[in-house]
Design goal:
Strand order of the largest sheet: 4-5-6-10-11-12-13-14
Number of strands: 18
InterPro entries: TGT (IPR004803), TGT-like_sf (IPR036511), tRNA_ribo_trans-like (IPR002616)
Keywords: Cytoplasm, Glycosyltransferase, Metal-binding, Transferase, tRNA processing, Zinc
Subcellular location: Cytoplasm
Subunit structure: Heterodimer of a catalytic subunit and an accessory subunit.
Bound molecules: zinc ion
Mean pLDDT: 92
CATH superfamily of the largest domain: Queuine tRNA-ribosyltransferase-like
Shape: globular
Helix content: 40-55%
EC number: 2.4.2.64
Length: 414
């Protein structure tokens, strides 16, 4: 991997960088859509490529179950299997094992879980996770970590943090022994829950291994914790992680979360939210999400966003038509998914442009005004951005603040 920082915001910790992987260049910060089964739900790989995406995520757990490593190896890897020519990242498989299996037990050897086919106990070790990711052939592979919910407290959090460090060493050893380090890049995952001391210890240990680690992820968040704690953990990690390594915040997809994380120094994020919410009939826009199921769209013949270059908006597909077919017809899922994936790309592309022009604080103010001006700014966003020198409230009059996570799409148009 070649990683080069091109521009830095003079106020916040945001930066623009160029990440060159085996399947081309990806400009950061970027949002990675999730293609669980080697396909973005609702899009063909060709459509995905035509939308200009350069980096997507595949789930190791699912690909290992079906089609399995034998098929992937026979195909020459997941790129060829799915007809995807750009960059690919795979997770370790651990998260799905914990979240989807009815039986999971973590031992020092690995994660023991019930096979979804036979119910038999099946072990995933750090070495096996890396081996499966080698068969998939992703450009970025993730270490197996000991995943605990962000709401877990007590000694289990510390145990999982130290085990994640030990498993990182096993993953590094397995990866280096494979001779694939020139094509596939192993990222570490910082754990430590919501505890700042544990995060510091994990950061210290993982940064010691920097010479063998091309990038770092921040894990163990986005699990229902308070946003006020979430952003402080992100800020703590980005402050300490090496500047010359990409930083990936796992499981982040709401527009406001993405921009706050970028301001705090995050380069990459992924989430199923934009594609999932599209299938439920919600289109993302710079003025907030639109729930196309609502009857107020029944006679609206405008596109979702007339300024949007996506195939749905630029061909003039009306909100009324989408309202008519949404959640009933697969065509609606395609149309809204294309739009939402492009929205995420525009959100991050505008952030990159603003950082390059050193006008990122102004972009943040404009975004929050357009997106939250009518319903109030989430207080945690205001506080998080103040910590990096941006006051969203300066120069604006009568701005309301709202508590909680401020996920506007949940309550807008209710
Ligand atoms: Zn669009």
């Amino acid at each position: 991997m070649q990683f080069e920082i091109i521009a830095k915001c003079s106020t916040t910790r945001a930066r623009v960088s160029r990440m060159k992987l085996a399947h081309g260049i990806t400009m950061l910060p970027t949002f990675m859509p999730v293609a669980t089964q080697a396909a973005l739900k609702g899009l063909t790989p060709q459509q995905t490529e035509e939308l200009g995406l350069t980096l997507i995520l595949n789930n190791t757990y699912h690909l290992n179950l079906r089609p399995g490593t034998k098929v992937l190896e026979a195909a020459g890897g997941a790129h060829r299997f799915q007809g995807w020519r750009r960059n690919l990242l795979t997770d370790s498989g651990g998260f799905q094992m914990v979240s989807l299996s009815s039986f999971t037990k973590v031992t020092e050897e690995g994660v023991l879980f019930a096979s979804p086919f036979t119910g038999e106990p099946t072990m995933l070790t750090p070495e096996e996770s890396i081996s499966i990711q080698h068969s998939i052939g992703a450009d970025i592979v993730m270490q197996l970590d000991d995943v605990v919910s962000s709401l877990t407290t007590g000694p289990r959090v510390e145990e999982a943090m130290w085990r994640s460090v030990r498993w990182l060493d096993r993953c590094i050893a397995a990866h280096e022994a494979s001779g694939r380090t020139d094509k596939q890049n192993l990222f570490a995952i910082v754990q430590g829950g919501l505890n700042h001391e544990l995060r510091d210890k994990c950061l210290e240990e993982m940064i010691k291994r920097k010479d063998r680690i091309p990038g770092y992820a921040i894990g163990g968040l986005s699990g229902g914790e308070e946003k006020d704690i979430f952003w402080r953990i992100i800020a703590q990690c980005t402050e300490k992680l090496p500047v010359d390594r990409p930083r990936y915040s796992m499981g982040i997809g709401f527009a406001e979360d993405l921009l706050v994380c970028v301001a705090l120094g995050v380069d990459m994020a992924d989430c199923v939210f934009p594609t999932r919410t599209a299938r439920f009939g919600v289109a993302l826009t710079f003025n907030g999400p639109l729930n196309l199921k609502l009857s107020r769209h029944a006679k609206n013949f405008d596109p979702i966003d007339p300024t949007c270059p996506c195939p749905t908006c630029s061909s003039g597909v009306s909100r009324a038509f989408l309202h008519h077919i949404v959640t009933h017809e697969t065509a609606a899922a395609h149309a809204v998914t294309q739009h939402n994936v492009v929205f995420q790309a525009r959100l991050m592309g505008r952030a990159r442009d603003a950082i390059l022009k050193d006008s990122f604080p102004q972009y943040l103010r404009t975004f929050f005004q357009d997106y939250f001006g009518d319903v109030g700014y989430p207080r945690w966003c205001v506080d998080a951005l103040r910590s990096v020198g941006v006051d969203l409230l300066s120069g604006t009059e009568d701005v309301q603040m709202v508590e909680g996570d401020g996920a506007k799409w949940e309550y807008s148009e209710a």
